[in-house]
Backbone:
């Protein structure tokens, strides 16, 4: 069984931009969403995947990720609810960890969230100066919820 341990943060400033090692464009859509799990299709740069994730609130969730051909992902996206989640994912290394910073586009333009995957929920990590308030337990920041209530409508 796959388990994801991920913490989400807002950013306090743009200081992270100077440390970007790699950036990838991502488009993803949701094929299904129940009280127990979501099924997502994603094109991330030159690769694509089908992902099943539990709807558990918090840092620890079940997650299963299966690579699929990009043409299949494009066809599956046509079956997904709109709007798609569109974002640029920037990877920034800091003190032995890699933060994934998602800069959202489209309907969620203006939202920027940092994610850190951990091997264990109890692991401590160095906080970069640009890391802001933690939003791991706030469901508004979950990608699945940004489809039904995009960031542009929060204001």
Residues:
């Amino acid at each position: 069984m796959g388990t994801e341990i991920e913490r989400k943060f807002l950013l306090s400033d743009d200081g992270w931009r100077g440390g970007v090692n790699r950036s990838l464009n991502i488009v993803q859509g949701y094929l299904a969403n129940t009280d127990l799990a979501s099924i997502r299709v994603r094109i991330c740069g030159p690769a694509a995947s089908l992902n099943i994730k539990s709807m558990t609130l918090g840092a620890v969730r079940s997650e299963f990720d299966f690579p699929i051909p990009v043409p299949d992902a494009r066809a599956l996206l046509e079956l997904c609810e709109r709007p798609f989640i569109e974002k640029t994912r920037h990877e920034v290394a800091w003190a032995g960890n890699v933060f994934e910073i998602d800069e959202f586009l489209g309907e969620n333009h203006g939202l920027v969230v940092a994610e850190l995957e951990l091997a264990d929920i109890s692991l401590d990590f160095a906080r970069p100066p640009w890391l802001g308030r933690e939003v791991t337990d706030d469901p508004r920041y979950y990608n699945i919820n940004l489809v039904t209530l995009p960031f542009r409508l929060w204001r």
